[in-house]
Design brief:
single chain, alpha+beta, Aminoglycoside 3'-phosphotransferase, Chain: A, domain 2, 10 strands, globular
């Protein structure tokens, strides 16, 4: 199931160009876009532009995003919007197209959604997680192309590939003139991958479906306490819904890292898991809840695997440094798995 690797890092992110601004003027009628502001983003070039008192986001995709994949992403956003999930729809060109091609990269434009907060606090997480359950419900029967199912780059590692992919990242670390901290990280990551692989093999195979792939922080916009935009489907793909939920829990535990493995933290994450169930008509099964802490720990290995694909040693070592703490608490979870599975279990 191992997918072809793509180079990650700033080298393949698009840059501003006169050709882009010309195309925005000629094909969308958007003038004065040269005053664009780079909104950031680890994957695509995202530009904020203004035209006739309206603001728009111009998104220039990485070169590996195909027409089939972008078409599927737009289809999914339309389907979700129809189902009540706020997702911005693409602005059409003057000829009716929903994207253009500049320098062999796909480009789309959408309205900028005003917002005053992201999903980056415990109260907003609890408010936003039920919508992830709704998203999974709406996507359960959606069928897309092979490109739509497989994200060339994602913040997830396929459960069947966890050992192979983790070892790729570890091998990179060991090829460096590695510090004692980096050597210890490689050793702990390898142990974690073995524990995850053993534990997940004892749980039944879970159903796969299309999922968002990065439901967290500045991909979920709030305005006056209400969710007004679910953005960034770059990592959309076919996985279990537990993996998608676990990614949100992982970012939560990593961000609020003061107390990542206590009974109190388990209960706080459990509150989010229960909130997820309120947004879907198919509550998490016992097997899914048992898999959740394993998937939570496995998510840190996705970033270890990513080390092998980062386009510079400096960037790769920076990623490794960020993962020291997360791998440590993930290892604690796996060594105390019964406590975590009990904490996430369905009430009797």
């Amino acid at each position: 199931m191992t997918k072809p690797m793509v180079s990650r890092g700033p080298a393949s992110r698009a840059e501003l160009s006169p050709r882009l601004f010309d195309a925005l003027r000629d094909q969308y009628g958007l003038r004065n876009s040269e005053d664009a502001t780079d909104l950031g983003g680890s994957s695509n070039l995202n530009l904020l532009i203004s035209h006739n008192l309206q603001r728009y986001v111009v998104r220039v995709y990485r070169p590996w995003v195909t027409v089939a994949r972008l078409s599927d992403i737009q289809q999914v956003r339309k389907h979700l919007a129809y189902g009540g999930v706020p997702c911005a729809q693409p602005l059409l060109t003057q000829s009716g197209a929903s994207w253009i091609v500049i320098d062999e990269r796909l480009v789309e434009v959408e309205p900028y959604v005003e917002h005053d907060a992201n999903m980056d606090t415990w109260p907003r997480l609890e408010a936003g997680i039920p919508l992830l359950g709704r998203i999974h419900k709406l996507l359960r029967t959606v069928r897309v192309s092979e490109d739509g199912c497989n994200a060339p780059a994602a913040n997830a590692v396929d459960p069947h590939d966890v050992l192979t992919m983790t070892l790729r990242g570890i091998e990179c670390i060991r090829l460096w003139d590695a510090s004692p901290v980096e050597i210890a990280l490689a050793t702990e990551a390898e142990t974690l991958a073995q524990l995850v692989n053993q534990a997940q093999s004892r749980i039944e195979e879970l159903p796969r479906q299309l999922v968002h792939g990065d439901y967290w922080d500045n991909n979920v916009f709030f305005q006056e306490g209400r969710i007004v935009q679910v953005a960034d489907f770059d990592f959309m793909g076919e996985r279990t819904r537990v993996e998608d939920l676990a990614l949100t829990l992982y970012y939560t535990n990593s961000t609020f890292s003061d107390d990542p493995v206590s009974d109190k933290r388990i209960q706080m994450l459990r509150t989010l898991v229960d909130a997820y169930d309120t947004g879907t008509d198919e509550r998490l099964t016992e097997a899914e809840r048992a898999m959740l802490p394993i998937a939570l720990a496995r998510t840190s290995l996705a970033f270890i695997a990513m080390i092998a694909d980062i386009d510079s040693e400096v960037g790769a070592r920076s990623m490794a440094a960020k993962m020291v703490g997360d791998v440590a608490w993930s290892l604690i979870i796996m060594r105390d798995l019964e406590r975590w599975q009990t904490g996430f279990a369905n009430p009797q």
